[in-house]
Amino acid sequence: MDDDWLWEALGLVAEVTEDATGGGLRGLVGLALRRNPRRAHLLVSRVLGKHLPVPPAVALEAGAALAARARAGSAAAQASLASGETVFVLGYCETATALGHAVADGMPGADYLHTTRRAVAGMRSELELAEAHSHAVHHWLLPADRRLLTDPRPLLLVDDELSTGNTAIGTIRALHALAPRPAYTVAALLDARPAPARAAFDRLADELGVPVDVVSLVSATVQVPADVAERASAIRARFAAPSPENEADAARGRVSWVRPPWPAELPDGGRHGWTPAHGRLLDEVVDAAGASIAARLTAPAGRTLVLGTEELMYTPMRLAAALAGVTGGDVRYQSTTRSPVHPLDVPGYAIRTALEFPAPDDPSRVSQVYNVGPARHGGATDSSAAGRYDDIVVVVDGGVDAAADRGDGPALAGLVEALRTHAPVTVLTLPSFVPEGAR
């Protein structure tokens, strides 16, 4: 975690104003450089389970802690208690899909939906949102039941980080125009908005005539110098990026495929909505699915990475937690990502290695996974080394490719080949949930 050099080289100055974790800003995030002309640096969450591997319990506990903050200090929660209405929780794809889901778990009776960037045949987006600073700007809302968006319930909007808050403000305005709500709360692991951006939320509340609150685990201001892009470019020039492996020389682990028993009525995630009844059903099946995974591992008590795929984060996270309970091994969880981050194999830098491959649900674009270590050659078994694993379990949904039902779809080939040079791979395919009206 000794990343002082990078903060200094970029000229970033942070001041923590509130900390519910006790670990400060550096305990919550690391730092890396983006491959994005709009933004030079990336605050890399140490608890989210996206770019960095974490024990699944850590990610789930972060969601529970954020839910507790929302219950205690949000207008949406207080309006819910006053009206008897349950809260509607909305998460952002792709980074906060699991976080939003975990927060919804901590809000009694809450329904959950996350935005999506995946088009679904037979479904029309109820609302299109824009995230101007993102590498993938547009995302949509595809609820199976439109009443999630039109019922006038308090809204809890969940994201991993607030840098300007503009996306959240745009979302609240769009949803309020569709169906006014009595209160809005934005919940984030990190609130790093500058003072003018914080004032914009007060103006929004005045404009709409309803409370608009923000809660977070850590609140901080981060001063960014005007020349941060030039500073980032100089750092890239100073340190060479890690060289790609010679795949011809890399040992290839075995690949196995598993489709665990899965109720047809249980969605793979919150793309089309998730109710408390879905949560209870997942609780009933997740341990058996974890046992199915454990039976395929080469070293069940060893070090295992469970890898979600882009928006498919929450269910893999729950499977990882179940697997840890079944095996007693060292199980870590993270996800593939669209987010282009520049890797540097330098101490204190958050993203040490990167693997690229065609995205399983759209092979025309690239996806990544970070910090999966190099293959262990010559029979080495140092599985305690960061990023090195005895087994990798990658969780996909059947919608990534029609051939995924056979377990060998071409859309998965790039991801599987990238991973199997690092450890034996088990591909677990969940049925892709499609609402009745879209079939």
Automatic annotation (TrEMBL):
InterPro entries: PRTase-like, PRTase_2, PRTase_dom, TRSP_dom, UCP020967. It comes from the Bacteria. Residues 28-220 form the Orotate phosphoribosyltransferase-like domain. It comes from Pseudofrankia inefficax (strain DSM 45817 / CECT 9037 / DDB 130130 / EuI1c). This is Phosphoribosyltransferase. Residues 268-405 form the TRSP domain. Pfam families: PRTase_2, TRSP.
